Amino acid sequence: MHFTLAKDRALNELLGNWFCAFALGMVTSRYRSWHLAHHVAPNTQDDPDYLQHTADDDYQLPILRRRLFTMMLRDIGGANLAKWVNSTTQWLGWPAVLGLEQSPLSARERWHFVMFWGLFATLALLTGTYVYLIVVWFIPILSLLPAFARVRNIAEHNYERSPDELDHTRHVDGLAIERFFTSPFNINYHIARHFFPSVPQHNLPALHRALLAVPEFRQGAIICSTYFGRRDSIVATIAQPLDSGGLSQVR
User: Fold this and answer.
1) Between the N and C ends of the chain, which has fewer C-beta atoms within 10 Å?
2) Cβ within 8 Å of residue 183, ≥6 positions away
3) Shortest CA distance to 2 belongs to which of 185, 174, 171?
4) What is the reported pTM?
5) Domain containing 82: what range?
6) Cis preceding-peptide flag for 215 (omega within 30 of 0)
């Protein structure tokens, strides 16, 4: 999305589409138009992520822990599938390729998308692996992925309007198993990513360490140790238990 995979932009698109986006039904350029708008004006009326999540009751924070885990179970069980598909439609290549909308894709992108899935389907049928792929790829995309994406989306921003990036963007250290499922490839370094979106993913840990040396960053940054831990975690921060005073607003 940030043109950091390869210096040559055409090669960046080729690698990004064929080795990442296409396999999820997405097209790099379609998601980029959405994602960069989020980077330009995060947590404002010009941020599509902000508009989408603040309009969704599931992202009204803070929430009860049991409600968060119930929503994740509903994601895994497919109960929220329609909402998940609707929220990702603008990133997908299928609507454009199937003629369900006026296509913003170039002829090259459309042809590459069709060629990828044609080759994918042919190889799956010829090798007899189509059942395996359905079980370990397509079903998780529609069940496990929405559940983990929900947690990551909640972790990245608190969806409170503020001109200061440090007020609404979070960093999560995360345990190794949490990063594997929820925030692979250093996605958990979200404050660093927002401050310097042109820095490649593999350099974000070093960037984060450099930012921590700045007193203003170290004092103002919202940093959590884990996603699901009992203390100093995203769950502890946004999914508060109900007490006698009710739910209190948190950062």
Assistant:
1) C
2) 152, 155, 172, 174, 227
3) 185
4) 0.86
5) 9-238
6) no
